[in-house]
Records
---
Amino acid sequence: MRRCLVLRLGRVPYGPVLAFQRTLHTKRRAQTFPDVVLSLEHEPVITLGRDGSARDLLVPWEELRKRGVEVFEVERGGGATYHGPGQLVLYPILDLRALGIGLREYVWRLEEVMIRTGRAFGAELFRRPGQPGAWHARGKVGFLGVHVRGWVTLHGLAFNVDLNPHGFAWIVPCGVPGLPVVSLQDLVDQELSFAAVEDAALRAFAEVFGVEVVELSGAEVRAWLSPSGLG
Amino acid sequence: MDLTIPDLGEVQEVTFLRWLKGEGEAVEVGEAVAEVEADKAVFVIEAPAAGILQGLCAQEGQRLPPGAKIGEIRPE
């Protein structure tokens, strides 16, 4: 079975993780690093994908900065989105040719990871044709935005575990004004722990991609993150 | 050599996002020349050969099928 490294980064600001995943992406394209998934949650941040622009910000950029919310323009597909504590983010950096899958299948699998994660806690999530993501009758739970160069992926998926959705009121999410956004916690009776949902998502990832996930320890992650580990 | 929309795997159509290089510019093999998008995934088109870009005809927002010609690379 193919192996895929997993790095659990905990709660981290957006900028350093963006730089880190770009570094890993370059190394993966050069075949000097294996397939890897970064698993994390972000400090509050708004990102604008290739379909988004400052027009999707309903609160001025400067005002957001004053509130401690960063804004990044990034190379992924899709429009504006919000990330914050309580949202699980997975950034798979995978060589799709080595996995033998194309772009559509990759997007389908990211959706499948989120649908199976919801199902593990009793929530019935589904796809909507033409609107990639994971949906519930009450709103959108899972988001995706991807960049592919040299058939190696960058960026990935974001799944609302128990996210304060106020950040979505600052933007036009995914180009859809007033898009209803819900968290898995809103859809189930049991009290969810973030770690349990993260575990379920990584299990779903392993199943859906047919890989054995190999977790790096905290010390190994720190070694990778140190300046000498990954330049 | 023709520059075309690649086969991305079961994708019927892509949206052309932008040129990263301009008409008349020299490119190396593997250099990023354009971006297209399908299903919230941005795909970077890389130069299949070295040369000069010419006849760039894809427009921002245009819907294109795999195999569609978007320009040419003329050997230097």
Note: The mean pLDDT of chain A is 94.
---
Amino acid sequence: MAKLSGFWYTAIFCTFLLLQGCPKKTPPTEGAEGAGKTTTQGTNKPGDSKTKESTAEGGSLKDVREGKPPVGSGPLGEIYFAFDSFDLNPEARATLKKHADWLKSNASARAEIEGHCDDRGTNEYNLALGAKRAQAAKDYLVSLGIPAERLSTISYGEELPVCREETEDCWQKNRRDRFNVSGGKAPS
Amino acid sequence: MNLLLKKIIVAGLLIFAFLVFVRGSFYAQVNTGTIDLTGGRRVPIAIAPLRNLGSGDDKRGVSDGVADAIASDMKLSGWFRVIDRSAYIEGPQSGITADSFDFKNWTTIGAESLVKGGFTVQGDDLTVELRLFDVYQAKQLVGKKYTGKVRDFRRIAHRFADEIINQFTGTPGPFNTRIAYVSNGGGGLKEVYFSHLDGTEKFQVTNNKSINLSPAWSPDGRMLLYTSFRDGRRSLFLYDLTTGRETRVPDQVGSSIGGKWSPDSQHIAVSFERGGNTDVYVVDRSGRSPRRMTEDRGIDVSPAWAPDGSRLAFVSNRSGSPQIYLMDVATGNVRRLTFSGSYNTSPDWSPKGDKIAFTGRVSGRFQIFTIAVQGGEPQQITSGSGDNEDPSWAPDGRFIAFSSNRGGRYHIYMMRESGENQQRLTASGGDDSSPSWSSRLE
């Protein structure tokens, strides 16, 4: 009988282990509540002038959230890059010189520079590459005399493409810096 | 006296039966790992719908649901051929112990292995018994009894599926786990989701209509890290499955990219970008006390911990193209691991410690490779016309999840570490990518 009670003890202990090991938690079935309070802040700095503000208010992420293609419509056009490169080619430098001239004659304007990649490769690497592309444009504009305080950068990596075809033409359009202008007067 | 003896024997037998149930694998170790599954042969297995051992109706479909989930796991493993239920001779109310049904009913249809079981539902509570039989030897290999909530019946099924694989290979299977990934739901912005491997119990983690990337499980499977543009700029976030709460991990250095828990859960390896340059850091579990691990002007991203936490694999383009490097965490010593190809990214360290899986570019396409930690020639394990990216090891070190656009849109797939038996896991209308395979759930 002593042996029997030993058996019982083991059995109860096993039941305990079994219960401990059993699935007991499932995640809440509703959406992530913590994420519910989405505060959508534009990425631009405050201090915009009141007259004839440029259209830049949020840029590519805002465009896509509103169902629009993330294509710049402000006074400063995009520049483009080669695959896995953040080198500024002669065409990009020429465009940036014009951007510098515009920023000099619109001294209250600020520009946010977005770096983008085509969708080939790894998302995390492309976030870092987009940051290099945005910084390359910023550094060049600063070298042309634009105060660094008027320029900010953000990388969207490959996440906000302007097109989705698997062609070199489309990939080239996506490997870009976009410039969002806030403050200053829009060109007449 | 006679009656007392009888009572003792009955009680003893009952206890013994119970012990076999609970600790079934202990009593059935003899067969573990003895069946050769390496030759590409698939063991024909029958999985009978469960017998309702209680009096209530099976409103939640436990009988078929458990059998379906086990069958799905057996197929995904690639080691089994599941015999279609329409061929079964016995009905679901036949016996579930070796002495209470006729094994001939299963040899006749070609089954070598057989799963039978029963269940009882009481309110929300569920009890499930599952047994694996060797049909030719007409004997039980393992029996298990599980209790839980009715809504968890699939997890019980996945646990037994892992046990079946343990019986055949000596190591439990990878099915009582979850896969986290991002999906754009048909062209929109990416949100984080997770589900079981078979796609059931899908759960949406983020719903902020922004960009959410790179989900990574904590070692205990209770928390997810991910990168989010939720507030317009990029930050690392932590989602606690137990509380449903999302918190921002403070950016001490710059704007973060990625983030992975150390194996002991005490640290996070993450990249921070500042002034356009991205470097790898190790921070504590609350995001504080940053320790800079790389200091060069190139891109340094995607750190992945070795299973013992002593080393990190990461991507750097310091040589001019993205390549995989290894770093000793204590000393900071760095060694380049990959030398072939001009684009090698997204490393993930095998839980066995011996290999690193990564994405490499070949002829303009991306493919999954593995390479020995000591270095040497990488082994290309995917091929074909699509892109195959973002490898994530299963906790058993025998399977790899990855994303592929071979069918047009990106979906999550799994395969053996050899590249064999590639099977699609997700079926959303959008693009699914960046899989992270959890550890085994309780």
Note: Residues 74-182 of chain A form a domain with the 60s Ribosomal Protein L30; Chain: A; fold (CATH 3.30.1330.60).
